[in-house]
Amino acid sequence: MTTYSDLPDEMKPAASRYLKRMYSNCDFMTREMNAHDLKMIHTMTKMNKIYSDIKDRKSKSITISKYEAQSIDTMTLPPPPPVAPKVQQKEKPNVKIHYCQAIKMDGNVCNSKVKACSEFCGRHSKRK
Ligand SMILES: [Zn+2]
Q: Is the distance from CB of 16 to CB of 4 less than 8 angstroms?
């Protein structure tokens, strides 16, 4: 049977916490562990390792002065890429299409394009 002292060192912190919690009144150093105990201790050790890995990888924030930030910027950042000259877009001629405002027999607005120099379309312009 396995006891606390048989465990590899990396499992001992989790084992001592687990055994003290599970069997609070006995001496955890000499207690024989069953398969379930070993499984729990193994899992706890693995979880603790993963947690500490995540903690190590977390980004940390520090406060620096504006001048420190500027020197870091110029040291580490490549110069900004040259700005490509903007291609000037041809201005579209401001075309406004006028529609005939005559009201048709059915009560709707005609909305056909007006004739040149007229307020109405071909159908509704006054005939001479
Ligand atoms: Zn019309």
A: yes
CA distance 114 to 120: 5
Tell me the CA–centroid distance for residue 128 and ligand 1, in Å. 16
**How far away, in angstroms, is 62 Cα from ligand 1 center?**
72
What percent of the chain stands above pLDDT 90? 20
pLDDT of residue 51 exceeding 80: yes
Distance 127 CA to ligand 1 centre (A): 13
pLDDT tens-digit map of 66-122: 777 777 766 665 666 788 777 777 777 787 888 998 999 999 999 898 888 888 898
* Cα 5 to Cα 92: distance, rounded to the nearest angstrom: 86
The DSSP code for 106 is T
Decide: 122 and 114 in contact? Cβ < 8 Å: no
Amino acid at 13: P
CA angle 11, 14, 16 (to 5 degrees): 100
CA of 114 to the centre of ligand 1 (A): 7
| CA of residue 96 to ligand 1 center, whole Å | 17
